[in-house]
Write a structure and sequence with these properties.
Blueprint: H1 4-15, E1 19-20, H2 23-30, E2 44-45, H3 50-63, E3 67-70, E4 87-90, E5 106-110, H4 115-124, E6 127-128, H5 141-147, H6 154-157, H7 160-163, E7 164-171, E8 176-179, H8 192-196, E9 204-212, E10 214-215, E11 219-227, H9 230-243, E12 247-254, H10 255-265, E13 277-285, H11 290-298, E14 305-309, H12 312-323, H13 325-330, E15 336-341, H14 344-361, E16 366-372, E17 377-383, H15 391-402, H16 427-440
Parallel strand pairs: 2-4, 3-4
Antiparallel strand pairs: 1-2, 5-9, 6-10, 7-8, 7-9, 11-13, 11-14, 12-13, 12-16, 15-17, 16-17
Length: 457
């Protein structure tokens, strides 16, 4: 293998001074946001154009060096940090955001465009972007496409794959595939955007995406409802989904999570007493949806208390109870994060049983459950475990498999869950994945240590 010196010199031929070797700067790219996954790298390469990205990939291929593509470094499964000494390929400088195509309701965005900037640009043109989640100020378009990011609006607008009308990406060979025309009807062969989306940087490096926009909804109402059980909250969520076409989010959290959020943020709880389960719902429409929400709420059983907000700052406060879970849990030390999806009919039982499963394996650990009730997607966070002790991960993911769920609803497989891919995918599916990987990245340059299990596993 080439020496560090040779690698750095060769990469400098492609991007000049944008090969970063300063230890402190490199360190900010080699540890993930949770601090559970810490790697190291000879260099961070920061190209500013698709041609430079292609040059970097070609150079790494030539040198026999693997790379890890990275966007905003907001990933939660160790998929974007160099755990095996890979070169870090940061796409953050690919900042081009083309003017909104107001006629088509589409936009082409560079991989480094941050989600909140995309939201702002779409809104300024009278449109909106359908995907949203808490790390919107750091997460990038390239990372969202690579992981098929989901978030809080999937029940209305779908995941990132559903927004993707075209893609520009660099394959493991260094060649560029570009199909950014944005035709809504276009049946000319394989759908590479759909394939690359969710491939976690293993098939291609995303450099730009053509994205579908949705109508901007000027009127919004948020409510938090308290319930005695998860099952009651999920029944309510189904009522809202059935009766409110303007439903944009239906999110779940529990009293323990709310207490933690309040103690970390200093916020006051939404009600004077604590209740076992909370459902946050948001409706967004062209006209005020408050009455429709109130009417739907009146047909829901077992509501203990409800608080409603229409003005932006109060709405944001209610959202913070839910969105601040991630940062609040992080204050307890690096968590284990198991982002899973269950058939909705099994979700309540799963949520009720997970803490016992964790307790039986690691009595000192604590389980935190919250997530996207409308999609059957629950985030199982476990604190108080050593970073590399994965007995709890195994126990919970096996349980997910037994319930017919998915071991990754929206965060991806990354390095954290590759061992357990077989719980959600058959041997034949994994063989087909490997064949695709070989075809698009024959020398295994692109993020070779994530998603697919190690050979033989
Ligand atoms: C969310 O829904 C994110 O807030 C993060 O997907 C979930 O921290 C997590 O486990
Ligand atoms: Zn989530």
């Amino acid at each position: 293998m080439a020496s560090n010196r040779v690698i750095v010199d060769r990469l400098r031929e492609v991007v000049g001074p944008q090969v970063i070797v300063d230890r402190d700067v490199v360190a900010s790219y080699t540890t993930d946001w949770t601090r559970r996954f810490e790697g190291r790298s000879v260099a961070v390469v920061r190209p500013a154009s698709t041609e430079e990205v292609a040059g970097v990939v070609a150079a790494c291929r030539e040198l026999g060096v693997a790379l890890v593509p990275q966007g905003g470094n907001t990933g939660l499964v160790g998929g974007g940090v160099p755990l095996h000494d890979e070169v870090v390929l940061s796409l953050r400088r690919l900042q081009t955001l083309e003017p909104i195509d107001t006629l088509a309701g589409q936009v082409t965005a560079g991989a480094g465009v941050v989600l909140s900037a995309l939201h702002q640009a779409a809104r300024a043109a009278g449109w909106a972007y359908g995907v949203d989640f808490a790390s919107r100020d750091s997460a990038t378009v390239g990372g969202m496409v690579a992981t098929n990011a989901g978030g809080t609006h999937v029940l209305r607008y779908g995941d990132t794959r559903a927004q993707l009308l075209g893609l520009e990406a660099v394959l493991g060979t260094g060649s560029v595939v570009s199909h950014l025309g944005g035709l809504v009807k276009d049946n000319t062969g394989y759908h590479l955007p759909g394939l690359v989306c969710g491939s976690e940087g293993t098939l291609a490096v995303v450099t730009a995406a053509r994205l579908h926009l949705v109508p901007a909804m000027p009127c919004r109402t948020v409510a938090v409802l308290a319930f005695p059980t998860v099952s009651h909250a999920l029944d309510a969520s189904a009522v809202f989904r059935r009766s409110l076409p303007a439903l944009e989010a239906s999110e779940l959290f529990l009293s323990s999570g709310l207490e933690l959020v309040c103690s970390v943020t200093g916020m006051r709880a939404p009600f004077s007493g604590l209740h076992p389960v909370y459902l946050l719902v948001e409706v967004a429409d062209h006209a005020d949806p408050t009455e429709a929400l109130a009417e739907a709420t009146s047909s829901v059983d077992h509501v203990i208390e409800v608080v409603v907000a229409t003005d932006p700052s109060r709405r944001a406060e209610l959202w913070r109870y839910r969105e601040a879970h991630t940062e609040a849990i992080n204050t307890l030390g690096p968590p284990h994060k198991l982002d899973v999806a269950l058939p909705l009919g099994s979700l309540a039982e799963f949520i009720d049983r997970v803490p016992e499963t964790v307790q039986a394996i690691a009595p000192a650990a604590r389980t935190w459950l919250f997530g996207h009730a409308g999609d059957g997607n629950v985030h199982v966070n476990v604190s108080g475990l050593p970073p590399d002790d994965d007995r709890v991960d195994e126990g919970v993911l096996r349980m997910v498999g037994d319930f017919g769920g998915s071991i990754s609803a929206e965060h991806g497989i990354g390095a954290a869950k590759r061992r357990w891919l077989y719980l959600s995918r058959t041997t034949d599916e994994i063989s087909a994945f490997r064949a695709l990987k070989r075809a698009l990245d024959p020398d295994g340059v692109l993020n070779p240590n994530v998603l697919l299990p190690t050979d033989g596993a």
